[in-house]
Structures are given as structure tokens and as C-alpha cells.
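Batch job 17 of 40 flagged for manual review because the log was empty.
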Amino acid sequence: MVEEMEDTVAILMATYNGAKYIEEQIQSIINQTYKNWQLFIRDDGSSDETLKIIKNFTNIDHRIHKITDNLGNLGPCLNFNELIKTHLEYKYIMFADQDDVWLENKIMISVNKIKNLENFNYNIPVLVYSNYYISNSSLKYKTIVYKNLNQKHLSERLLVHSWVMGCTSIINSSLAHIAVDIPKEAENHDNWLAILAAAVGEIGYVKETTMIHRIHEDNVTKNNNTNTLVNRLDRVRKMFLFGLLEKRKLMQKLNIRLTETEFEQPLVIKKYQKLLDLKGIHSILYARNNHFYAFTKKRTFLFYIQLFFSKKRGLENARR
């Protein structure tokens, strides 16, 4: 049978008070054309009906598992970190948000792409991400996110600002092994995985849309980044005061991680570290000459302003 020849894909889902949409998401995974998967769900202390819904699914599909531990509430990043750490034996790992909906060919498309990039070299860390729709809570209005995605100088640009969504991604075991113990400076697992793959591995992009990312009032990421004027100004303030300092710390953590593996520090990381140590107009010129720019012109402009102004302030504030 074809199913027996397919590699088992571990799908990792972190949940928290997701009762409103999780049933639709799990059902979309069950409906996948690629059948050889195992879904592992770790709940972060839900107080709604999430656990009851998960239990119902574990009773009807042996591929669905609820993770039980005594670690308590970890938050999204550490929740996914724990899931990665405990499922390193799988050849491929995917990530599922509790409120999205997967199109039926998502796993098949992702596995085919990552296998093509590996080309039987399973030691190289690989990440594949896909295009996706964003939609409102009722899924009535869908918009394609990446209309004309520029793939040039991918490693440099992802170091400046990563746009890769973990929920659209698949990684191989090689990347998973060097990714565990996500540093706090990475902010989230999406960013850390993309940086690692960009630095020492391969990143592939699937232009075809594979899922619907639901935007609603209860999104965890939205709640963590409330779009009030006060919170926006506070984020900008922190970016200019501490942004480059955090980036330097993250590069230090990355280099430590690489020394623990067989991977050498790549040239792009050396250039990026040099960029972070430059001052004023020299930093901007170096960034432009070495293709360090962001996903959008707005993000690039903010990064250049950050390079120009925030270096000294960030260090001074860090000493206080």
C-alpha cells in the first residue's frame, strides 16, 4: 500500500482556550490526502472546552494524542519547544495552530517539497514553508498573503526580519535536533527555525496556498501585540532601545549552538555580526551592499533607522 511507503509526519499543536475553532482545525488534519501522520497536542492549561474536544478526537482516531506532563503553563514558544524536544525521532515535523484550517493537500505538498530539497541528504537542516490565506473568523473572506514573494538573498533578509510562519512550515529531523532549547531572544519558534535554516541549511518555498490562517479577536499573537496606540509606541520604543542588543544576544546563542554541532559559522552570520557592530551611516551602507533588507520597504526603513540610532542607547540602557 502507498500509505506504508510514506514517512510518518509528526504534527505538533500547542493549545490554549481554543474550543471555538479547534474542532474544525483537527478535522482538516484528519481530511488530509497524506494519511501517515501523528498529531501530538500539548495543552497549556485551558479553562474552556478545549480538553474535552481533544479527548473526543483521541477516542475516534488513534493518530491523535494528548500530551500529559507536569510542566504547567509554558506560553506558546516554550510549549512548541517542549513538543519539538519530545518528538525528535520523527523524520519530519509540522506545526499546527489551534484555530487555522489546513487545505487537504498541505502535508502531501510539504513532504514532496522537503524531500526534493533534501535529495537523500538527510544531514542537511531543511525548512519548507508555503503560501497561505488569511481570513476573518468566519472564513468568508480570504486573501493570499504572498503575491510576489522575492526569494533573492533569503538568508540575509530572514536575519533582518523573518516572515516565515511556523504554521505553514515543515522541518526535517536534522533541523529539529539543532533547534531544541529555543532562546528567549528568538521571540518565537518560527523565527528561530527560519534563522537556523537560513544560516546552515536550506529553505524552500511553496507558492501554492496550503492553509487558511484565521484572524480573530482571540488570537494569541494578536493579544500579545495589541494594536492600541500605547502598545505600538511601546514596541517602537523597545525596538530602538533594545532591538540591536537582542539581535546580538541571539547571534551569540546561535554561535554557541553551532559550536555544539558539526556546523561551522557561515559567512552570512559573520557579515550580520559585523553589521550589528558598525555605527551610523557605515552600518546602513554595509547593510545595503550586503543585501540585508527586510520583507517590506517599511520594515527595511525601520531597520536602517534602528541601525543608525539605537546602538549606543541600547547598550547604555542594558547597563542600567
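Reviewer: the log was empty due to a logging misconfiguration, but the result itself is present. The CA atoms of residues 116 and 290 lie 29 Å apart. Unflagging and moving on to job 18.
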